[in-house]
Write a structure and sequence with these properties.
Helices cover 45% and strands 31% of the residues. It is α/β, with parallel strands linked by helices and 84 residues long.
Protein backbone atom coordinates (compact mmCIF):
# COMPACT_ATOMS: atom_id res chain seq x y z
CA UNK A 1 0.00 0.00 0.00
CA UNK A 2 1.25 3.50 -0.82
CA UNK A 3 1.81 6.09 1.85
CA UNK A 4 0.77 9.70 1.39
CA UNK A 5 2.25 12.28 3.70
CA UNK A 6 0.72 15.74 3.75
CA UNK A 7 2.65 18.42 5.59
CA UNK A 8 0.27 21.24 6.41
CA UNK A 9 1.59 24.73 7.00
CA UNK A 10 -0.61 27.76 6.62
CA UNK A 11 -4.22 28.80 6.52
CA UNK A 12 -5.05 27.82 2.93
CA UNK A 13 -4.19 24.13 3.02
CA UNK A 14 -7.78 23.03 2.38
CA UNK A 15 -7.32 23.69 -1.35
CA UNK A 16 -4.25 21.47 -1.32
CA UNK A 17 -6.04 18.77 0.66
CA UNK A 18 -8.84 18.60 -1.88
CA UNK A 19 -6.20 17.90 -4.54
CA UNK A 20 -4.85 15.02 -2.44
CA UNK A 21 -8.13 13.20 -1.94
CA UNK A 22 -7.79 11.09 -5.10
CA UNK A 23 -4.32 9.94 -4.03
CA UNK A 24 -5.51 8.91 -0.59
CA UNK A 25 -7.99 6.28 -1.71
CA UNK A 26 -5.34 3.55 -1.84
CA UNK A 27 -2.83 5.01 0.59
CA UNK A 28 -2.11 5.27 4.28
CA UNK A 29 -2.26 9.00 4.87
CA UNK A 30 -0.49 11.02 7.53
CA UNK A 31 -1.17 14.73 7.89
CA UNK A 32 1.48 16.71 9.73
CA UNK A 33 0.82 20.24 10.91
CA UNK A 34 3.45 22.61 12.25
CA UNK A 35 1.75 24.95 14.74
CA UNK A 36 3.00 28.38 15.70
CA UNK A 37 2.52 29.38 19.34
CA UNK A 38 -0.53 31.55 18.62
CA UNK A 39 -2.47 28.33 17.98
CA UNK A 40 -2.34 27.64 21.73
CA UNK A 41 -3.93 29.24 24.78
CA UNK A 42 -2.29 28.33 28.09
CA UNK A 43 -0.58 25.41 26.37
CA UNK A 44 -3.80 23.98 24.91
CA UNK A 45 -4.67 23.93 21.22
CA UNK A 46 -7.41 26.40 20.28
CA UNK A 47 -10.84 24.94 19.60
CA UNK A 48 -10.88 26.14 15.96
CA UNK A 49 -7.62 24.25 15.34
CA UNK A 50 -9.06 21.11 16.94
CA UNK A 51 -12.07 21.37 14.64
CA UNK A 52 -9.83 21.96 11.61
CA UNK A 53 -7.85 18.84 12.50
CA UNK A 54 -11.06 16.83 12.78
CA UNK A 55 -12.20 18.07 9.36
CA UNK A 56 -8.88 17.10 7.78
CA UNK A 57 -8.87 13.67 9.45
CA UNK A 58 -12.38 12.99 8.17
CA UNK A 59 -11.62 14.26 4.66
CA UNK A 60 -8.36 12.32 4.28
CA UNK A 61 -9.15 9.36 6.54
CA UNK A 62 -5.69 9.90 7.96
CA UNK A 63 -3.57 9.94 11.05
CA UNK A 64 -2.81 13.47 12.22
CA UNK A 65 0.39 14.64 13.86
CA UNK A 66 0.99 18.10 15.29
CA UNK A 67 4.44 19.56 15.81
CA UNK A 68 5.03 22.82 17.61
CA UNK A 69 6.92 25.31 15.48
CA UNK A 70 9.58 25.75 18.16
CA UNK A 71 10.34 22.01 18.04
CA UNK A 72 10.44 22.09 14.24
CA UNK A 73 12.85 25.04 14.24
CA UNK A 74 15.14 23.27 16.71
CA UNK A 75 15.28 20.23 14.44
CA UNK A 76 14.05 20.71 10.88
CA UNK A 77 14.54 16.99 10.25
CA UNK A 78 11.91 16.13 12.87
CA UNK A 79 9.30 15.23 10.24
CA UNK A 80 11.68 12.85 8.48
CA UNK A 81 12.69 11.30 11.80
CA UNK A 82 9.07 10.73 12.79
CA UNK A 83 8.26 9.04 9.49
CA UNK A 84 11.24 6.69 9.45
Amino acid sequence: MNKLVVVIMGQNCEKFISLCLESVKDADAIAIEVDEEYHFINGELKEKDKQRQKNIEEALHCKFLRIREIDYLKNINIVKEILI
